[in-house]
């Protein structure tokens, strides 16, 4: 089966699985997932499954990417913060849907691999930073939307504080390393916020801090 055929089949599977936002589906179709997948897994680039990348992380299952992106209720005017760049795949999807993406990754090696991918795909509305995702990006706050791509034990208050007070939305997995993780959508209005549970998932944990950089030792 050709790459295009696999991509079309994946998009059909996503639509049948509940990803109904046509802009999200178009972004998933336009961004070449094989660009973000390790060479050993190229033949699985359009399988609806998570795949390993370096630093013990994963590139998320396309269905989860689609559903979480859809849950953000994005427009092309939004400024979004992504916590956990990973391979860069989710940021690339977001870049097709919003005005500006700010993405943070704690692993310098992952960011060093993601940045050339953004450049190769001419995704010029993505701004990157190596840092502690728990702390967000205060200098660029407030954000219309925040997406967290690792599981927090609790909704981080530092990130809620960086959401726009006028209808800001954050989508993130919450739970420990077991099977009890759920994607939560937080809506903020003024100083109040409410959350709703969306669907179960399995993500790597959201870790505070940044690994030591050997080059600085």
Query: How many distinct domains?
Result: 1
Look at the helices and sheets and give the structural class: alpha/beta
Report the total helices: 6
Architecture (CATH level 2) name: 3-Layer(aba) Sandwich
What is the gist of this entry?
The protein has 217 residues and is an alpha/beta fold. The chain has helices spanning 3-16, 22-30, 62-71, 89-95, 108-120, 157-161; strands at 51-52, 58-59, 79-83, 100-105, 126-130, 145-148, 166-174, 182-189, 192-200. The chain has a single domain, classed as Rossmann fold (3-Layer(aba) Sandwich), CATH 3.40.50.
Q: What does the model show?
A:
The protein is of the alpha/beta class and 217 residues long. It is built from six helices and nine strands; from the N terminus they run ααββαβαβαββαβββ. The strands form two sheets. A seven-stranded mixed sheet has the order 5-4-3-6-7-8-9, with helices on one face. A two-stranded antiparallel ribbon has the order 1-2. The protein starts with a helix and ends in a 17-residue tail after the last strand. The relative contact order is 0.13. The model is unreliable at 213-217 (pLDDT under 50).
From the structure above, extract its key features.
alpha/beta; Rossmann fold; two-stranded antiparallel sheet; 27% helix; disordered C terminus
Secondary structure: elements and pairs:
Layout: H1 3-16, H2 22-30, E1 51-52, E2 58-59, H3 62-71, E3 79-83, H4 89-95, E4 100-105, H5 108-120, E5 126-130, E6 145-148, H6 157-161, E7 166-174, E8 182-189, E9 192-200
Parallel strand pairs: 3-4, 3-6, 4-5, 6-7
Antiparallel strand pairs: 1-2, 7-8, 8-9
């Amino acid at each position: 089966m050709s790459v295009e055929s696999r991509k079309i089949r994946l998009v059909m599977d996503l639509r049948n699985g509940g990803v109904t936002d046509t802009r999200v589906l178009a972004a998933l179709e336009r961004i070449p997932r094989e660009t973000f997948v390790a060479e050993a897994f190229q033949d699985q680039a359009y399988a609806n499954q998570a795949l390993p990348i370096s630093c013990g992380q994963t590139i998320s299952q396309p269905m989860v990417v689609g559903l979480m992106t859809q849950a953000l209720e994005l427009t092309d005017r939004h400024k979004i913060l992504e916590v956990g760049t990973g391979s860069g795949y989710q940021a690339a999807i977001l870049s097709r849907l919003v005005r500006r993406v700010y993405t943070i990754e704690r692993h310098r090696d992952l960011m060093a691999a993601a940045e050339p991918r953004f450049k190769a795909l001419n995704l010029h509305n993505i701004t990157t930073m190596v840092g502690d995702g728990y702390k967000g990006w205060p200098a660029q706050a407030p954000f219309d939307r925040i997406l967290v791509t690792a599981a927090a034990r609790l909704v981080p208050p530092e990130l809620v504080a960086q959401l726009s007070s006028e209808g800001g939305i954050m989508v993130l997995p919450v739970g420990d390393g077991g099977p009890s993780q759920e994607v939560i959508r937080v809506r903020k209005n003024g100083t109040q916020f409410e959350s709703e549970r969306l669907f179960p998932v399995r993500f790597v944990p959201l870790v505070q801090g940044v690994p030591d950089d050997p080059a600085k030792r």
